[in-house]
């Protein structure tokens, strides 16, 4: 492709990909498959690699990050970033309403919005392009965090030109971490022996200040815009300008509402005070704004905040109770998390009996003593936490909480590596919660799918000494488990239920175990629970190593050749196979008939050297990723669209008619899956 055509195609692809980003990340309504999206992206990456002079800092390919920021430059805000006056009471809202009426009379409209609990950001656009993203700082000057913000998919890098984008504008909003991303991040931190973040807000703030934007890109941050600033905005009111911003590509909350009076505002507040728990992100209140720009101007500002807006903050839900004990929970990887056992107390509609204490440093920071009276808080956060200790209530002979030296569950001495925040129990093979967590992972739906063993049943098997590891599951006999039972108490709900192994249950379990023997290798690999080998990594491994033996015998360097496998994962795989007990378990599972190879071809030759393939549709035997790897391992190339350079169109079911038409027109050879396998026979 010559320079001019490449330039045209890059522009075209950028536009298409941006539209798909918008559909996916802003509207949450994707219209193409992940595969089709990946193909478009791949084509763009290749073109930019071939013509680096055409690559743009705001290209969608830049979202993966790469830039490193050593010190974040401090920049001045064009418009100061003010804060909001806060209130916790309806009475003060009434006062606010009175003040407003005094200045502008009765003819006005409110806009009610959620108050997102994240990090404020100013996004500066010039000629429709993102040029800067700046944190609030002291309100006048903030940190330039553009490299990291560029990786947030819901922040547009270029605005859609719908005819009315001003040449210069600033979008103000809140960067936040959705609960799902937060939980994932903390899980990863814990299994990495790193201290978890206390809440999604801290996680978002920390992510924005990461020096490596590549890591920020993995944090799955999100951003809502709540204000547009500029001299030539299309409308003369806040609400309509937000609607324009949505058309330009920004993510706007669907829950913003216009209200005519305070009663409607109270309704909005009441609704969200209850419903906040249904959101996938934290809010800490509601923001009430005057809609009209003119009226906003008339109301003006105090030194710190606008007089045309106010934040109604939900009361922080706190309770005062006694710390009875500290227990230590052990996770799948042996990480020990301290948990406060509290005198049960009512907090926002639930009885709280436990609170997270994170790690030893947190206990030290709080200087906790057993029997202390403590303040427990449940903000937007998912888990209640201890925020304060009332030392005036402490007995003279109170015992300070000192972190356990032995595992609560198996009495093994705990270890804490030099410089690390977390303790862990090294007794991987005998510590009951570690065994339980490993088995629960193994039987989970995405792994071996033996869920009939879930809901407390595995625990019963472990307690009865019937299973100590995943291989023991396949030795279970009907007579051994029929009739076992146990009452499981749900402390939180104050209920208990009986779990028993009745005839039907036992039959289901044994059937599911039998059926699991045909679960494909990639899922078995995931089920083994090798640290850092999640579902995606397992899927990446199997096209390269078609059997467990090949994987087991691979060197560190060979593992690194697999896309997405870095040093950390490679090390973990090597370590796993160095453990003789793991090999014994694999051999036992293999003898029981579990799948430890793909049964598919895995070869590396120059057979397809210089050949260009396009893959389209769905295939019976191979996934598209596997086909792609096969082609690439054998020297071929895979591109996203049919052109005169294409040698083969590898056609599956439901392939795009346009691709077929083009292939026919350009006389490109169309082959199906089995014809493709025939080509491989030549090797
Ligand atoms: S408007 C000049 N709207 O709350 C007023 N702020 O103290 C600009 N916040 O950290 C703020 N949700 O980032 C506004 N819907 C919303 C908001 C919101 C969250 C944050 C803001 C700032 C704080 C205000």
Q: Calculate the terminal CA-CA distance, rounded to whole Å.
A: 32 Å
Overall CATH class of the largest domain: Alpha Beta
Structural class: alpha+beta
CATH architecture of the largest domain: 2-Layer Sandwich
In which range does the helix fraction lie?
A: 25-40%
Named CATH topology of the largest domain: D-amino Acid Aminotransferase, Chain A, domain 1
Number of structurally distinct domains:
6
Global outline: globular
The total strand number stands at 23
Estimated share of beta-strand residues: 15-25%
Whole-number radius of gyration? 29 Å
Low-confidence regions: none
Q: Could you describe the 3D structure shown?
A:
The protein is globular. The protein has six domains: 3-64, Helix Hairpins (Orthogonal Bundle); 74-313, DNA ligase/mRNA capping enzyme (D-amino Acid Aminotransferase, Chain A, domain 1, 2-Layer Sandwich); 318-420, OB fold (Dihydrolipoamide Acetyltransferase, E2P) (Beta Barrel), CATH 2.40.50; 432-518, DNA polymerase, domain 1 (Orthogonal Bundle), CATH 1.10.150.20; 521-591, Orthogonal Bundle (DNA polymerase, domain 1); 612-680, Rossmann fold. The chain is an alpha+beta fold and 683 residues long. α1 (3-26) packs antiparallel against α2 (34-50), α12 crosses α13 (457-463) and α16 (521-527) crosses α17 (535-541). The strands form six sheets. Strands 12, 13, 14, 15, 16 and 17 form a six-stranded antiparallel sheet that branches. A five-stranded mixed sheet has the order 2-11-10-3-9. The structure holds 2-(butylsulfanyl)adenosine. 2-(butylsulfanyl)adenosine (IVH) binds at residues 82-84, 113, 115-116, 120, 174, 226-227, 287, 306, 309.
